[in-house]
Specification:
Layout lengths: L1 E7 L3 H12 L4 E4 L4 H6 L5 E3 H9 L4 H6 L1 E3 L1 E6 L2 E6 H4 L5 E3 L2 H14 L3 E3 L6 E3 L6 E4 L2 E10 L17 E17 L8 E5 L2 E9 L2 E9 L9 H12 L11 E16 L2 E2 L2 E3 L5 E2 L7 H22 L3 H4 L1 H23 L7 H14 L3 H11 L4
Parallel strand pairs: 1-2, 1-11, 2-8, 5-13, 11-18
Antiparallel strand pairs: 3-7, 4-7, 5-6, 9-10, 10-11, 12-15, 12-16, 13-14, 14-15, 16-19, 17-18
Helix pairs in contact: 1-6, 1-8, 8-10
The protein binds arabino-flavin-adenine dinucleotide and P-hydroxybenzoic acid.
Pfam families: FAD_binding_3
Keywords: FAD, Flavoprotein, Monooxygenase, Oxidoreductase
GO molecular function: FAD binding; oxidoreductase activity, acting on paired donors, with incorporation or reduction of molecular oxygen, NAD(P)H as one donor, and incorporation of one atom of oxygen
Length: 384
């Protein structure tokens, strides 16, 4: 069996890459270890930058996103008993974000690939990478797929990055001393916009998925387990952290899903080796405070698609050779912004009283200076 691009992983990166390559007349096969139902139900990101929305709409997979996505023109920073709106329409006119669950993006992409006769294989076992230096191929479940190029879109725990020989990749990483407990609840949002809250009890985020479904996050200890967080405790803690301004009451409802996500930052350089190109979480992880993970995956895929099109259309390898450098500039900007938002809004146990005063002073500055607020706004909606 042969294809031009062998893609490992049917998350946003792998599926979007397969779709964009198809639009350029380039063949691919997507190999996914999980079931279709699993990847379509996996609750993850919720905020799409303008660039991500534009990419999906221009690629013809944004129709439901346009219909059901929730455009947002600001966020609230809530601390010290008061709320402060970061108004995108004032600070970065014409730019906004759209709230639309990652699982919805995945559903739209799978539907588009299958409607176009795309080769997306689920529940594939034992994918392995071979011949990266010259004649690449993938093996899986007793089969072999010969390809010109392999795209590692298999996330942080995938097989593609580990297939690069020792000593080639430089790893940059930072683990945070806490995690996020993510909650999906069948309850109307208690706020029209996202609320990022800093309290002495810890960080909380009020997001949403639709007019009837809310998404919340609580900062919890790094070793927290879901079992330690029964629904009653979750609602009590969300209320304790979010009901910190006069007149705000958090509505509660049925919790449909909850899970603990570690908070880590990770980058490998370069994001390529031989005929292997890494995209999305296979190459980098950001703490989700800046809502960048999914958007970075889309940005990588835009660059990789143009590079592969140049290669297959006229044999030019210049863009492929420059793939990592082109991606890493945006990756590191998102890494810094995600670190900045995380340190600005979370409580660190080893922080001393001086450190906490610095944090509050920075929040005062960001919510009172137009220049400082613009820094947050332009990074949050996505750098051009
Ligand atoms: P993904 O991890 O989405 O997809 C990789 C795919 O490869 C998976 O389907 C996996 O099953 C498959 N795979 C792995 N190994 C394989 C193998 N050996 N063979 C075949 N297939 C294999 N980002 C945000 O912006 N905001 C958030 O709120 C947010 N919350 C998150 C919560 C959680 C629990 C996690 C884990 C991540 C979260 N992220 C968030 C980041 C997330 O959205 C990623 O950035 C995004 O999924 C990246 O997409 P991909 O690179 O496609 O990787
Ligand atoms: C989400 O809605 O899942 C979400 C929103 C903003 C973030 C992280 C997650 O910073």
């Amino acid at each position: 069996m042969r294809t031009q691009v062998g893609i490992i992983g049917a998350g946003p990166a792998g599926l979007l890459l397969s779709h964009l390559l198809h639009l350029r007349g380039i063949s691919s096969v997507v190999l996914e270890k999980r079931s279709r139902d699993y990847v379509e139900r996996r609750v993850r990101a919720g905020v799409l930058e303008q660039g991500t929305v534009d990419t999906l709409v221009e690629a013809g997979v944004g129709e439901r996103l346009r219909r059901e996505g929730l455009p947002h023109h600001g966020i609230e920073l809530r601390y010290g008993g008061a709320g402060h709106r970061i108004a995108f329409e004032k600070l970065v006119p014409g730019r906004s974000i759209t709230v639309y669950g990652q699982q919805e993006v995945v559903k739209d992409l799978i539907a588009a690939r299958l409607a176009a006769g795309g080769d997306v294989r689920f529940e594939v076992e034992d994918v392995a990478v071979h011949g990266l230096e010259a004649e690449p191929y993938l093996t899986f479940g007793g089969e072999r797929l010969d390809c010109d190029v392999i795209a590692g879109c298999d996330g942080f725990h995938g097989v593609s990055r580990p297939s690069v020989p020792e000593g080639v990749l430089s790893v940059f990483e930072r683990d945070y001393p806490f995690a996020w407990l993510g909650i999906l609840a069948r309850v109307a949002p208690s706020s029209e916009e996202l609320i990022y809250t800093r309290t002495e009890r810890g960080f909380a985020l009020h997001s949403m998925r639709s007019p009837t479904v809310s998404r919340f996050y609580l900062q919890v200890p790094a070793d927290a387990t879901v079992e330690e967080w029964p629904d009653e405790r979750i609602w009590a803690e969300l209320k304790a952290r979010l009901e910190s301004v006069p007149g705000f009451t958090l509505a509660t409802g049925e919790i449909m899903e909850k899970g603990v996500t570690p908070m880590r930052a990770f980058v490998v350089e370069p994001m390529q080796y031989g005929r292997l190109y890494l995209a999305g979480d296979a190459a980098h992880i950001v703490p989700p405070t800046g809502a960048k993970g999914l958007n970075l995956a889309v940005a990588d895929v835009r660059v990789l698609t143009d590079a592969l099109a140049a290669y297959f259309e006229n044999g030019s390898t210049a863009l492929l050779d420059g793939y990592s450098e082109a991606c890493l500039k945006r990756v590191w900007r998102a890494q810094h912004f995600s670190w900045w938002m995380t340190t600005l809004l979370h409580t660190f146990e080893d922080d001393d009283p001086y450190g906490r005063r610095l944090q509050l002073s920075y929040l005062d500055y960001v919510t009172s200076s137009e220049a400082a607020a613009t820094t947050l706004a332009e990074n949050y909606v996505g750098m051009p």
